[in-house]
Amino acid sequence: MNFDLNLPAQLSGALGPDLILMGGAMLLLLWSAWRRESDDHQRNVGILSIALCVVTMIVVAYYAYVGYTANVGPIAVDNFRWAADEIFLIATIGTIAMSLDYNVREGITAGESHVLLLLSTSGMMILAAARDLIIVFLGIELMSIAVYVLAGINRRRERSAEGAIKYFLLGAFSTAFLLYGIALVYGATGETNFARIYGNIAKFHLEHSALLLVGIALLLVGFGFKVAAAPFHMWAPDVYEGAPTPITGYMAAAVKAAAFAAFFRLWLEAFPTLLVTWHEAVWWLAAVTMVVGNLIALAQRNIKRLLAYSSIAHAGYILVAIVVGTKLGSSAFLFYLFAYTMATLGAFAVVVALGSRGEDRMGVEEYAGLWSVRPGLAVAMAVFMLALLGFPIFGGIGFFAKWYVLQAALQSPFPQTRLAIVLVLTSLVSAGYYLYVVMVMFMKPRDSAVALPARTGGWTRTVVWASAVIILVFGLFPDAIVSFTRRSAPVLTTDAPAGRDNTSLQRAASSPAPEVVSMRPGLSTSGH
Amino acid sequence: MANLLNSIGYNAWVLPALLLIPLIGAVVILLLPATGEGIDRGVETPAARTVAFWIFLLEFIVSLGLWWSYDPAITGWQAGVDFSWIPTWGVRFTLGVDGIALMMVLLTTFIMPLAVLGSWTSVRTKTRSYYALLLILTTGMLGVFLARDLFLFYVMWEVMLVPMYFIIGIWGGERRIYASLKFFIYTMLPSLLMLVAIVYLGLHIRTASGTPDFSYDHLLSASTGTGRTALWLFAAFFLAFAVKVPMFPLHTWLPDAHVEAPTAGSVILAGIMLKMGTFGFLRFALPLFPGAAMNPTVRMIILILAVIGIIYGALVAMVQPDFKKLVAYSSVSHLGFVMLGIFALTLQSVQGALMVMINHGISTGALFLLVGMIYERRHTRLIEAYGGIARVVPLFAAILTFVSLSSIGLPGTNGFVGEFLVLLGSFQTYPVLAIIAATGVIFAAAYLLWAIQRILFNSLDKPDNIHIPDLNKRELGLLIPLLVVIVWLGVYPAPVLRRMEPTSRMLIDRVEGHTALALESEVTR
């Protein structure tokens, strides 16, 4: 079926999964406010939230299965969106499940914490769908504001409050960049819709418009903040350390993935002809992020900060897929997001499982000899670390993710060999800190003075095991995911814009490529 | 025998079975009840070692059939299997043996049960995990030898790394953490570069629809880049393999890893894992990039490094106060011979290199086992802590002397055959290097005999040494097969050589054919 996005009813249809999640979230919000705060109520809200996510996942899967399409409008209806949605929803379910145990331990009785996660996730789903700068902005705000609150949900803890304030201030700061960028792009092109921006750039030869280029630069900075790419990453470690651990996992996995999804679509759909201009900027962003993230992570001795820097490093790897920008790149991008999300979620679930009330013991050294007392958790954590390291079989899907990015980088019409080498070498550096965690768990003797970690809650344990099993099973048989992500490129990249597949970079930049414009129906008809 | 094997369809299932048996075994061992039989003389869960031993023995018996079913008259792959694995990436699960892989597989399955017997009482804690890791490691090692798909090869190559990392890091000596990390990083850096090269190759021969192809056979028949590209690709493979060999100056991980590893770890590292590097040269680096490998400058550099390795390894071994370290450095020297033989590229030298690979696995494996046995008794590996113990432990002394002589290359033992062939073969192409390398044999005699003299003979002047018990039945039982093989390969190596010859010949033809073609085209131009 083809949605006509000009009709409100069909637009709602195209937003079906998003609306289900939002509507459900609002009902849950009411219900959670209805009763007195208590552990039981908090748990019930959480379980219903998980159920709602599962329902949404099924609906998304149905939409993907039917293969809906739509004309050019404010939102996209394509597999890229569905694939990204599923990743966000999986991350959300994992986070809520961890929070169920975590909230009880920390004495957080507010059921709203789960609902806020749902609202944030609906923001992400909008981001993945957005084909209009205004929608991007809406999605980012919806996503971020909920997370600002979540970061400080444990308001009795000083660190949490500090992290929340930092996150809020820097988030607002980056949103300002983004908004200013949007304004300038609009000023230069007179449009906010991706496709029409693209069309107008071609039509009026805006490739060298200073206004547009400054706008793009500001957008890049704004997204750089959101995905914590170096040099815009400074906020991440403090915020990650301060936030409640499940929320940190959520920020590292889902929030980052959502920002990337929007970033990817915007870049490929609105500015493909400006390849030369932004290509080099993103290239450097990727390279610097990989180097900085990995090198600083080496010095971290706090597990949350270590994972924070690791997530910065992974932002760099994902940026490589964006630099590649082909259909294969988008497939690799989604695959990587999935693998990264599973591994990060699992790792944070282990951190939740091993934490104690108040989160005062977060040093990696606390895990010394973990293998002899909690062998299951130690093995699972080793799997997550090896997955993040990108090691085959034992790190499961993590290796294939890196492999795929490498393959995309080398197979692109402009082989990114140098970037591939940087990726590989920085991966080696990352062995230094991922193996450090493994080494501490398995090879250091247990300090008998340290109390045993309390028995892990059932929900968290489930997250740990589910993540590990998914990583390992798909690490042996990745084909299903690969072929799904294969079909999931953002629409314009499938149309091979501007002869990117065979002609030179320069030509792609300079030629307005009229044939591409005609390739997309609706662009000319749905104009002003 | 071949008929019997055929009648049970041996060739169709043997290779997947060889990879699967250890994995199943690992699961079985992990499922053993932890406190089932309690503790036997300080060894946790003694059932684990028994089960592991029988699984390895089963693996050896299964693999032994290859000796008869392999037909040297047929060049090319035998017992091949081919499944689809990741179709969207063009990755296939393709296995097969040729003459070289055959011997390496048999070497592996032969050494593994002995390695288990070697750790029988020395590994006391977490035995289930230990033996499970050994089993997984075996799958990885066999996978490397059997893989005919570059992607599969890479995966198996990395799979070996993690179990060994844990084996060194958990059950190793005092500096185990440092040694295990060094081992991991040293191996991983170049293998990641090799990964980039493999991706490049896979894309190079991709199909029309853009699906990469990693099949080794397809890559062989395609021209894999020329000039500068081939050199870079060769360099990536070269680094990965040279670290594993290890070639001077990339060998510094080896003494640490070998010394800190538990006995079985050292035996496997020296006996099997070092061969991965030289095997990689024979299987991948040379046939895929003959132009680059036979580039006179490149070849000369490698040959000189090999000879430096021979001499350097021997000289450093001579001054080691620690017997295990001495044996470790002797590996650098022996593997130098292998590299010399491979790059001298005559039939004799390549065959000799292969023999050295096998012999080094047997003799050095045996030496590490012996070091482990004496360490268990005295808890020191320092040569100066011993002296005159031949009178206390005559059996141990006799075997140690015999194994050392085979490692030196005494005629009549296996060591002689390999090194003699290498020197003979390389003398035809590189006489000067062969002569220099020959002095390495003399040094080998010097460091080993001198060490033996200080350990076994001299005067029995340390009171601690007076009451060392001699070898027990288990230790004797595990050493006897090694001794038998040492003598067999020393006296009658023909069956082994005959099985490897067609493969070696094909390799040389391919590499030289390519070089000849290149020369010809240069002349005509």
Could you explain the architecture of this structure?
Chain A is an all-alpha fold and 528 residues long. Chain A is built from 23 helices and 2 strands. Chain A has helices at 8-14, 16-34, 39-66, 79-106, 112-129, 133-151, 158-189, 194-204, 210-226, 235-242, 245-270, 275-297, 303-324, 327-354, 370-373, 375-389, 397-411, 417-443, 458-476, 479-486, 491-494, 505-510, 514-519, and strands at residues 2-3, 69-70. A two-stranded parallel ribbon of chain A has the order 1-2. In chain A, α13 runs parallel beside α17 (397-411). Chain B is mainly α. Chain B has a domain at 295-525. Chain B is built from 21 helices and 4 strands. Chain B has helices at residues 2-7, 10-31, 46-69, 99-118, 127-146, 150-159, 161-171, 176-204, 216-221, 227-244, 253-260, 263-288, 290-293, 296-318, 323-344, 347-378, 394-408, 414-429, 431-456, 473-491, 494-524; strands at 39-40, 43-44, 78-86, 91-97. In chain B, β3 (78-86) and β4 form a beta hairpin. In chain B, α4 (99-118) packs antiparallel against α12 (263-288), α5 (127-146) runs antiparallel to α6 (150-159) and α16 runs antiparallel to α17 (394-408). The termini of chain B are far apart. The mean pLDDT of chain B is 86.
Q: End-to-end span of chain B in angstroms?
A: 55 Å
Q: Percentage of helical residues of chain A?
A: over 70%
Order of helices and strands of chain B: HHEEHEEHHHHHHHHHHHHHHHHHH
Mean pLDDT of chain B: 86
Average pLDDT metric of chain A: 84
Structural class of chain B: mainly alpha
From the structure above, extract its key features:
A: 528 residues, mainly alpha, two-stranded parallel ribbon, 2 strands, 1% strand, disordered C terminus, B: mainly alpha, 4 strands
